[in-house]
Amino acid sequence: MGFSFECHASCRQTGARAGVWHTPHGCVETPRFMPVGTLATVKGLTPAQIQTTGAQMILANTYHLHLQPGEAIVEKAGGLHEFMGWQGPILTDSGGFQVFSLSELRQIDESGVTFCSPRDGRIIQLTPERSIQIQNALGADVIMAFDECPPAGAAYEEVVAATERTYRWLERCLNAHQCPQEQALFGIVQGGIYPDLRCAAAESLVKLDLPGYAIGGVSVGEEPELIHKIVRITAPLLPPEKPRYLMGVGTYKEMVVAIASGIDLFDCVIPTRFGRHGAALVRGERLNLKNAQFREDFTPLDPTCPCYTCQNFSRAYLNHLVKSREMLGYILLSLHNISELVRFTQQIREAILRDRFVEEFGGWLDDR
Amino acid sequence: MGFSFECHASCRQTGARAGVWHTPHGCVETPRFMPVGTLATVKGLTPAQIQTTGAQMILANTYHLHLQPGEAIVEKAGGLHEFMGWQGPILTDSGGFQVFSLSELRQIDESGVTFCSPRDGRIIQLTPERSIQIQNALGADVIMAFDECPPAGAAYEEVVAATERTYRWLERCLNAHQCPQEQALFGIVQGGIYPDLRCAAAESLVKLDLPGYAIGGVSVGEEPELIHKIVRITAPLLPPEKPRYLMGVGTYKEMVVAIASGIDLFDCVIPTRFGRHGAALVRGERLNLKNAQFREDFTPLDPTCPCYTCQNFSRAYLNHLVKSREMLGYILLSLHNISELVRFTQQIREAILRDRFVEEFGGWLDDR
């Protein structure tokens, strides 16, 4: 089986491309949005429901799964696919982002990061070797290099040091990786907001001929203009015969801009987070289903949406569920929101295949 | 369409019977457990998931739906079936039980009950006429008479008065009912713990030739012996050509005892409530999935159970989800628990059809 990426169509005016990426657990048609299943569950949805959204690949989090239930349990269960009942491709992140953003009392040195478990207070050390060891045990199709993520607004010298360390850590990750045939290890281009550092990082990573490349450090909450700038600079430097993944991004415009630069894969917690807050993504807009305007709105969220929620329920019913704090409200909204973002990337894919990307999605590329 | 009950087999040694009950929204094979969907949602489950449990008929609550979203919204949506996306038979209770058990500041007189809405504090009056009017608007297949439920431990004279009033209120319900062809109005036999009052109530209700009969006032939390005694006295007095429903009961032994007395239908909040508390019903036992003993238990909840949860997930995964307070844990446990109780009644049904009820389920009838 192994991994291979086929490009089926490329846009003549932009870097957009439509392809099929083969992984040991099946194909991923790109460009494509991937839902996040932090603790080996996409919040509120069964694998059967996730499948109906058109999602082909999902994410899980090494940091969270290391803390609970621990990778030993997942490994004994036969790996993540078996443990969580998802037979399609899975990607685990390295835990780096969570260690830097969620943990208290962390110490960073050349060996790795030491932090306090938020669950039971015990001291945990995560190193490149340890992250890969955990990800080998979890058994996802794609695993990510352990990187140092400098905070937003970090000074140039700080980012230089973090980017260089990220490269040295990547080499250690590659050495530690036990099963490159079964699990593809992606490198992550860091470099903060500094174009020259991004370029240098991309260049040195490309030389390692990795099975895939990610752009990190441009996640939810960043200035959209910053995301656009970094992606436009970095993505074209990555080898065309490998999949390209923009980490943590899943807003409409940012995905279109990134696809135009040649990005293939996206992930974001927005669809499930919005769902749990009673909000729906509908054609680029955010609807708050709690609002009284939906009380007697007996139309679906989006009459053109083929998802289970839109095919069976009205905005009035969703308003009732959300107002009543019923679990089913969060479930149905999460189901729709994931379907919506997957479908959006799928529609872009079809436009690229028909050579109509700029005609149909060019509007999103305008600065506004 | 309308309503009709066919008895397909009767036990030679007990009152147990297996039948098919035709309703405007489809058949219910009896005996059968019905899950509760208080606010027009069986907590955490989509209608598609409910269907996979084998549940054929579900309940909703007039009291809760009157408070939120209000019956006017449900009626405008085209009725409960349309509103909640459940195309099978639905039963609504009268709101009586909730008014008496949940509301503060209630005043009871011959006209009805006045109480304070727990949502916004406004004063609401529920009368037999109002309950039926609301249930007519909700549009369930089966609606229940508005009854007075005396508290547990009520004195004889108090229960006499409540039972007599319940009869007068039933007559008013029948007069108020607008669509007896589409909605079957069931009477409820009350009478507390007093056999003579139960018998008298059953006798007077039977004379009204109602489309179905319920036994009320023997709900979750009552002494099992009391439930057995009342059901054994009351059920055989109800006409055999009509369905018999024991309200609020859904424990294994109590269902077998009731079926042996001729009861056809059950409802109970236990499967979803246990599910939300991380507990599973497995062959008569309650398993707390939070317990460390399940951490590395890679077997399903019940290897003989055909439900989605047991076919796809291990106890170790459920332990992980429940410990992580993930919604999916509650969902998968609720799904299993409902399947388990429906399947239990379905297995009893098949035993009755094969004339093997006492042989296969007689053990539950022993006093212990």
From TrEMBL, chains A, B:
This is Queuine tRNA-ribosyltransferase. It catalyses: 7-aminomethyl-7-carbaguanine + guanosine(34) in tRNA = 7-aminomethyl-7-carbaguanosine(34) in tRNA + guanine. GO terms for cellular component: cytosol. One of its GO terms (biological process) is tRNA queuosine(34) biosynthetic process. Keywords: Glycosyltransferase, Metal-binding, Queuosine biosynthesis, Transferase, tRNA processing, Zinc. Binds 1 zinc ion per subunit. Residues 248-254, 272-276 are annotated as: RNA binding. Substrate binds at residues 93-97, 147, 190, 217. It comes from the Bacteria. InterPro entries: ArchSynthase1/Queuine_TRR (IPR050076), TGT (IPR004803), TGT-like_sf (IPR036511), tRNA_ribo_trans-like (IPR002616). Catalyzes the base-exchange of a guanine (G) residue with the queuine precursor 7-aminomethyl-7-deazaguanine (PreQ1) at position 34 (anticodon wobble position) in tRNAs with GU(N) anticodons (tRNA-Asp, -Asn, -His and -Tyr). Catalysis occurs through a double-displacement mechanism. The nucleophile active site attacks the C1' of nucleotide 34 to detach the guanine base from the RNA, forming a covalent enzyme-RNA intermediate. The proton acceptor active site deprotonates the incoming PreQ1, allowing a nucleophilic attack on the C1' of the ribose to form the product. Its cofactor is Zn(2+). GO terms for molecular function: metal ion binding; tRNA-guanosine(34) queuine transglycosylase activity. The keyword DNA repair does not apply. Residues 14-359 form the tRNA-guanine(15) transglycosylase-like domain. Its EC number is 2.4.2.29. Homodimer. Within each dimer, one monomer is responsible for RNA recognition and catalysis, while the other monomer binds to the replacement base PreQ1. HAMAP family: Q_tRNA_Tgt. The active site is at residues 93, 267.
